[in-house]
Model the fold of this input.
Amino acid sequence: MTATIRPFRIGAEWRVGGGKSITSIYAGDGSVTGTVACATARDVDDAVAVAEKAFRTAPWRKLRPDVRATTMYEIGRRITAERVPLAHLQMLDSGKPLKECQHMVDNAAYFFRYYAALCETWQNEVTSPRGEYFSMSLAEPYGVVAAITPWNSPIMAEAQKVAPALAAGNAVILKPSEETPMLALELARICTEAGLPEGLLTVLPGYGDDVGAALVKHPGVRMVSFTGGTETGRCIATVAGERLIPVGLELGGKSPHIVFEDADLDKAAAGVLSGIYGSAGQSCVAGTRLFVQKSIYRRFVDELVERTKTVRVGLPDDPQTQMGPLVSKAHRERVAGYVDLARQEGGRVLMGGDRPSDPKLANGWFYLPTIIEGLPNSARAVQEEIFGPVLVCLPFEDEADVIAQGNDTVYGLAAGMWTGDYAKAWRVARELEAGSVWINTYKQSHIATAFGGFKESGLGREKGFHGLRLYSQVKSIFFGTHDKPMGL
Ligand code: NAD
Done:
């Protein structure tokens, strides 16, 4: 162990894994943010043993919910108190602009506060009797939950899983992405300092095919909550299916964003740009497939190109920055590869399609906001998740045509539309195969509104009551009220 490698903790013991480490790189300029010890399969065994013991013996799951909530409120309070350093570290870890990181840290605190409030107010069901008994259905925790997260929204995605899982009484083992391992360790520290009993949250930094896979296979893990790519989700679901344990899956997307000819085109253009270039397109719900009604197609797309020229690509810590870098060099190459593929498939790149020329950005993993047209809906660049600032534009005839084209994808995470006709909006929203649909707005999210995907975009729902139910199993208990002994 060297002094610069940050260890992780299993129970009371600090660990350095098997000697390997993970280095987090700042996408703004390629410098090193920090290095953390990388867990091994042995650490997984030990972490599960500690979590099982904590689940069974610590009073956590048996505490009165209002008492459990006190610790959860305190975690939220401490996250807010550390907002500035946490957001800065998040920026260095993920490369996202500082203001987005502040928003994510705020959301992480809100998750703890929200699930604390749900924890202390949640009511179980009592059923009206149909005999000499009364019965009730109670929510019980699963035991040890494995939470596996991606790199695009660390701390927020992590709190979105850890807060409801703890509120429901579980013990959690969190494996953050190897791209962004820093924030989860901070979250574990804050939880400990807030009084969460030892062993109830363990963070294991490590690689997916090693630590992640070992967690999913481990017989002591009773539920898996995963956010990440659809192919990884499929592997996890296959193992979980064999083991007959529940999974929550928040997966990829290729969301249709629709502009009807009767829309407020000024607002629609702003919404389309924010839907694709926010987070540099590294958002599962990014509006990546733009469908514009034929009568306004040329005018609207030309206007988008003009507006895209004004998007300020810049360093994450510059308050003027509207779009920061991509998370890593490898990811930028992947995004650029898709734009090359689109060109080969016959697409016309109307804007971007390259790195920025600004010398201040030369050492980071920046890519210009990009607009492509001329591809059929079947092209790979239209169908596959690029996860970068690449918008593909397609024309459509009418309502039926855009519903058919919009749904012609394996994904079903989100969709958006702009129209002045609310009856049409309602009809189209009901037909779109997507877990979230935005009408005359885009990419809004609410802590209490269910979130998740249709089709290959996921299984189960997070946020709101759904989030708490995801981490609970139902037990029914019957109390006899017999006056006389039971007959046969
Ligand atoms: P990824 O699937 O490559 O990795 C996600 C996590 O899974 C990482 O922690 C990784 O180490 C781990 N992992 C990889 N292989 C594993 C295995 N075999 N077993 C267990 N764990 C394994 O995804 P990513 O590149 O980190 O993130 C981008 C993806 O996440 C995109 O597809 C995006 O759409 C999706 N995403 C979805 C949502 C949502 O809510 N639906 C939110 C954010 C991101």
In short: The pocket of nicotinamide-adenine-dinucleotide is lined by residues 148-152, 175, 177-178, 207-209, 212-213, 216, 227-229, 232, 235-236, 250-253, 284, 385, 387, 413, 453, 458 (CB under 6 Å).
